[in-house]
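Thread title: Can someone regenerate the structure for this chain?

I was given the following input by a collaborator and told the matching structure tokens would be attached. They weren't. Posting the sequence so someone can regenerate them.
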Amino acid sequence: MLDELNEMQLKAATYTLQPLLVVAGPGTGKSKLLTARVWHLVQEERLASRGIYVITFTRKARANMQSRLEEALSHDQAQHINVLTIDALAYRILQAQSRQQEDNIARRPTVASEHMTHSLFLEAIEELAWRDPQISRVQAWETMRNWKLGDRDPALLPDGLAPVVGRFQELLIEAHKWDIADLLPLASQVLSGNREIAAAFYTQAMLIDEFQDTTLAQYCFIRQVMEAGGGNVRNFTAVGAEAQSIYGWRNANYLELREHIEEDYPDLHRIKLDVNYRSRGNVSAAAAAMAPTYEEVYLNCLRDGGDVYLHQSQTEEQEAQLFADMIQRLCEDGLPYQDLAILVRTWKQATVLEKALLQARLPYSLASEAKLPYYKRPAVLALIGYLRAVAALRADQVAASDYDMQGALGLILNMPPRRGIGPVSREMILDGQAELGWEQLTRAMVREDLRPQVRASCQELFDILTGLARDRALVKPNNIIEAVLERTQWLQSLHDELNGKELLTDLQALQSEAVLFETLEGFLDSLRTKLGQDWNNAGVTISTVHAAKGLEWPVVFIASFNDKIMPHASAMKSQRQMSEEERIAHVAFSRARDLLFISYVNHMRDANTGEYQQMQVSRFAGRLANIERRTYEQASFGLDPGSERAGRRAPQETAHPAVL
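Best answer:
Regenerated them for you:
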């Protein structure tokens, strides 16, 4: 195991059982280092596996680390090492308390989904009739979430919001649920008041990955776990790099964190990993140029060369089409789809890219468990459901089994806006049938066994659909979509949705697609192939920069490298936030191994008006002035022959007029 390490990795892996900070830039093999250090602790220091804790930043990283340990150690040794996210560690402590109290398994709390916690928060607002003309409900939710990440002083909440938060916590208890933001403080209380449980988490070694994105509260909790269990608080290893600290919005502050760790461990030893095994030299230099003030970004690369492009497109749509064309060309040259990724600053940018890949029939996957492919998102399906129902009514094909009506009413029965038709009422309306048809809907309007609110909601949906179907002025599908959004007050309802801006982008994208068709029938025909295909499979990855942390690909495309995108508009008035935007660009660029294609656009649609706005290339682009770059030419585009998977050689460097 140890003979596979370079000099600095070996020093870190075999360092004494004392406080250690490993500064590990992108591609320097930190996962390999962590695996080797655990191997050393178990095999050479003879520590018990049960006493070793490896804290990872995400569940995906946890699975990767567990897999590495199972390859390096025996099955018995690997399975007893505690590889956990911080939230999972807190959850394990709370579960231990539930078992100790012999709680009924069915009544033991579990972690609520974000959707459920948001719904309970809105329920608390409605119960207390809370209103503040200065703060929307979404802003109130975000305020509460940020408040929970801090010291939770009620005086810091806006007027009247503290009782709402209190009622929200009561609703969680009534539902036997934990808010994920409450896991650490609740677990901390258990450790403070229950010696038996604290002793069960005896720690001989604590290793933390992605330390730079750990919040101070998380670090203090980890320290408490080590102290409360009576273990070795000095066998502490943190791995990370300040240049990759990109979670300030989650209250992570590396400078504050470093002050505390240096206070706790005055003799903290520091080792820097300086060999980049991932990126070729030119790509690594481009990534370093984004965060030039951090020493850990300057690395020795094992491979020279690498292609860096800076390209201008007129619009997001043209940019997306260009990406699809280039991906098609690279894959025709033998590059697997899984070797390519498109990185965006926010998920809102992904919609136009998905549409382009779908149009080109290129498979793709989204690097988020919470994200669904475009044509599988509930809001998109619901809007299509309205169109299908209108088409069915106009053709007088309203049976549940008729093609356009099949499944359409089920998609729109309770959205949008939500009409208060719950699962029980829905089953009653279905009346034993698998699909909801027009007959069941019309009967539901007068059924005495249904609540008045449910009958009224069914009547409302009936009125909207019949009104749309009878309005013969509505011929073109984009006009029908506009009428649906207006008559359902759909857009107004988005103000209370957590992802309202993303939903608005999705709806606008479907309307833009509909503009290309003269008839509703033609538009629905074009959607059938897309709806029937499972696009979210092994293909090109679309990811935000944050979701791409820890991942890498031979080819990476950066979408819309513009001011107000990267750097983000919300960060441009704060020096601290702008510093984080630099680091975000650094992380984005450093995901590429062989080819980095950076694109910016001249015009972008405004999310609210749908009108095109003039855009400026990112102010960070000027930092690429001294980086060898290539100019995109369709005829010669491809991977350099020195790349891991060679294609056609790209043309020689040409200065870019927008930057130089």
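The first strand starts at residue 20 and ends at 24.
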